[in-house]
Design brief:
Elements: H1 3-11, H2 14-21, H3 25-34, H4 42-48, H5 55-65, E1 106-108, H6 117-123, H7 133-150, E2 156-161, H8 164-175, E3 181-186, H9 189-200, E4 204-209, H10 218-227, E5 231-237, E6 239-240, E7 245-246, H11 249-258, E8 262-266, E9 285-287, E10 300-305, H12 307-315, H13 327-334, H14 347-363, H15 365-385, E11 401-405, H16 412-423, E12 425-429, E13 438-442, H17 450-466, H18 473-498
Parallel strand pairs: 1-12, 3-4, 3-5, 5-8, 8-9
Antiparallel strand pairs: 2-10, 6-7, 9-10, 11-13, 12-13
Helix pairs in contact: 1-2, 2-3, 4-5, 6-14, 7-14, 10-11, 14-15, 15-17, 15-18, 16-17, 17-18
Bound molecules: pyridoxal-5'-phosphate (PLP).
């Protein structure tokens, strides 16, 4: 008789076991169905049964049925060549290495996101040279697709070879000369990174600080600019990924311009998921990243610069201290007229970005924003039905990044680990002062789908209820379905009125 059956026999019925362990009956039913009690319950079983079913028995049974794999890769014998036989072997790995096959995961963290099959297929097309005429033609299309997602006519709109952090650094290195005063708005991790960039460029930072989880306060920015009339640049994060909070990029830009400063905007998490309107909002410099709402492979950072920025950089008297990032040099490859060698462009990643942007063009940018909002509303309904509270006030919540407080007393890292190992679902942890306090559920790009919303709610609900929390998976799922139904009904009414 397995441990689950022993418990039923001891207490009389599954319902009685559930009562004794203060669990949902579905959890006990699940134990009986899988034929063992999960290892994490070992101690509790011994305690509740007064030692009649021992912890060791539970552990042995659970690890026999569901062995814990400490290593994600098989640890095979060495290649078979004896050390000393081949001189090259001195540096050879000591174990057999297989081709790498990552598991299929549902990615609902802060990025990267899942990648659309069309993008993956495109990425595996044959390599061609970065000056091949076919590639050069593709570069022009890529720039025009980026102008579409950024909503700009800026000629200088292109992807930098490197992750979002490189796009960020590119903006600061080119726009901040030693001694330039820069107002940096910090309301989370990434505002802090901007500050670090200003310092490293030799700029003079003025920090406008806001509590994590609240947006950048426009009044504080205005006050800082009144006090610092020689400010050259204002920098802020539109969508702070560390908290799931959205700041008003249009208003902050207006304030900066009123005081004669240019803006650098971080749109890493916003681009493609929520409105970013570079021309209408008169943004000067902006950067993003390929692996968030654009749902492409990581490692590219789309940027866009106004003519005013290009002019300012051209006029700089000092030499830009980074060769790779010097805008004047990179213009030779990505600029309007010439295609001369600057560095070896990551060709296949650029094919992939072209396809990812094409998918957004086909869906329509506004439809993409609406999709992010729709699934956010459903996920939120489900999370709230499980009693979870959002970190950010409703009006500032980012649909693509949902930060909620972890329930009191829950082993939050254990929850994330179980979601990953048992459900293949990745969610994000809190950063900095929010570490251990919040979870971050990303709904970005191709990961922003109804099946992911429902999987997330049912997986999280069952892990929490398995841990003894008074959570009802069915309630969360019903709340999400209810939210979808309401939105469908509203859409149908709208369409009827429009017809
Ligand atoms: C708002 C924000 N800015 C910058 C970055 C840095 O981007 P990357 O990790 O691609 O370097 C991130 C990454 O998560 C981000 O969320």
């Amino acid at each position: 008789m397995n441990c689950a059956q022993q418990l039923v026999e001891l207490f009389g019925s599954q319902a009685d076991v559930a009562r004794a362990f203060q669990l949902d009956r579905a959890v006990v039913n699940h134990w009986v169905k899988i034929g063992y009690v999960p290892a994490r319950w070992a101690g509790e079983v011994e305690r509740v049964t007064g030692g009649k079913v021992s912890a060791v028995e539970v552990l042995n049974e659970a690890s026999a049925v569901n062995p814990v794999r400490v290593k994600s890769r098989p640890d095979d014998a060495p290649f078979g060549i004896q050390p000393g036989q081949d001189a090259m072997n001195t540096y050879a790995p000591s174990k057999r290495i297989h081709s790498f096959h990552p598991p299929q995961r549902t990615l609902m963290g802060p990025g990267p996101t899942e990648i659309h099959p069309r993008v993956l297929t495109t990425m595996s097309q044959p390599a061609i040279g970065y000056l091949d005429p076919v590639f050069v033609e593709m570069m022009e299309e890529l720039k025009s697709l980026l102008r579409y997602v950024y909503q700009t006519k800026n000629p200088l709109t292109f992807p930098i070879s490197g992750p979002g952090s490189v796009g960020m650094e590119y903006c600061f290195v080119n726009m901040v000369a030693p001694g330039d005063k820069v107002v940096v708005c910090v309301n989370g991790v990434f505002g802090g990174r901007m500050l670090e960039n200003v310092i490293r460029c030799g700029g003079v930072p003025v920090v406008v600080e806001d509590t994590w989880g609240t947006p950048v306060d426009p009044q504080k920015l205005e006050d800082a600019l009144k006090k610092n009339k020689d400010t050259k640049v204002v920098a802020f994060v539109q969508a702070e990924t560390s908290t799931g909070c959205q700041s008003d990029a249009r208003l902050l830009t207006q304030i900066a311009h009123k005081h004669g400063a240019l803006v650098i905007v971080d749109a890493v998490t916003s681009l493609g998921g929520t409105p970013v309107k570079v021309d209408e909002w008169e943004i000067d410099a902006i950067y993003s990243a390929s692996q968030k709402c654009l749902s492409c492979t990581p490692g590219l950072s789309p940027v866009s610069f106004s003519e005013a920025v290009v002019e300012r950089v051209k006029k700089r008297k000092d030499r830009i201290h980074s060769w790779f990032m010097d805008m004047n040099l990179l213009l030779g490859y990505w600029g309007a007229t010439t295609r001369t060698y600057h560095h070896t462009a990551p060709t296949n990643s650029l094919f992939a970005l072209h396809e990812a942007l094409l998918l957004i063009r086909e869906e329509g940018l506004e439809n993409s924003w609406a999709r992010h909002q729709r699934h956010h509303v459903a996920l939120k309904a489900g999370l709230e039905a499980m009693g979870m509270k959002f970190l950010v006030a409703e009006k500032n919540q980012l649909p693509q990044m949902n930060a909620v407080y972890c329930p009191a007393g829950v082993a939050e890292a254990e929850v994330r680990k179980t979601l990953l190992t048992e459900f293949g679902l990745e969610i994000g942890a809190g950063l900095g002062p929010l570490a251990g306090k919040i979870w971050r559920f990303g709904l970005m790009g191709y990961s922003c789908r109804p099946d992911n919303v429902m999987l997330c709610l049912s997986a999280l609900g069952s892990v929490l209820s398995d841990m003894g929390l008074p959570v009802h998976v069915g309630d969360a799922e019903a709340a999400a379905h209810g939210a979808y139904a309401q939105m469908h009904a509203k859409d149908a009414q709208r369409k009827k009125r429009a017809a």
